[in-house]
Amino acid sequence: MKYFFRVPLHLLLLLASQTCDGVMIKSTPPVNAEGFIRASPDDTVSLICEIPDINLKEEELKWQRNGAAVSLNDQNKKTGSALCITPVIPEDHAATFTCSLAKNSTDSASVTLEVLYPPQLSGSENITIEEQEDLVLVCDMKANPLITYVTWTLNESTVDLIAGGFTVTNDGRTSRLQVNNVEQSLHDGVYQCNASSSAFPNKTKTFYVNVTDRTIKFPLVPLIAGVVVVFVTSILAVVSRWRKIVKVTHKADSHAKINK
Question: How many Cβ atoms sit within 10 Å of the Cβ of residue 166?
Fold first, then answer.
């Protein structure tokens, strides 16, 4: 999200205003009946702060976003000071922009953004998992308005929590489907997470889950250690045997020389 400081003059006729004493904010889009500026991601919101009192026209203005100062250039600190929020992002939801006189912060006006956005559910994901492993599927539920309805399906049928050993948890931000010790006959297939809200019905994400036979995995480090031990033991045994052979041969040669 970026802030720009110029708004075309022809937009002024479309601006709605919020006024408090000597400061007034005009906005595009206008403030709705609930007192918010409604927008969607990638939209642009334009704000202009004006001083209606002609005696205060030369007073400096300042902007704040949720209480934090917004940096302005010197040419944008007098009446007509403008902000342009573009593109609007989900994190702008409930952000409050306040314009006030620099020398008197109580002389101010504020507007609040209401950003409507759907959950980030789309596309598909391929998952390969072996039997007896744990399967966890997660869908992002963060949205405004809040998600009111979530379902999980397997091969186009609602998942059977009891027969399949599934557990489903929702914390308002994510929906999680989990099963321990997967079985190919029960858990292989196409999963879908479906979410709906009053503004964004039927958002879906698909998971293609391939459950394969379990492979026997050998622990590499112990295996290598075992091979080394066997190899060293074999070498020591050969060396020991060789020493015995040499001793016997040496005794036989010595005995033969004495007999001569």
Answer: 19
Q: Which long-range contacts (CB under 8 A, 24 or more apart) does 93-97 make?
A: 93/117, 93/144, 95/65, 95/66, 96/65, 96/66, 97/25, 97/47, 97/63, 97/64, 97/65, 97/70
24-115 shares its CATH topology with 124-212: yes
Can you list the residues of the chain whose pLDDT is less than 50? 4-16
Architecture of the domain spanning 24-115: Sandwich (2.60)
Domain ranges in the chain are 24-115, 124-212
The whole-number pLDDT of residue 174 equals: 95
Domain 124-212: give its CATH superfamily.
Immunoglobulins (2.60.40.10)
* Exposed/middle/buried for residue 174 (C-beta within 10 Å: 0-12, 13-18, 19+): middle
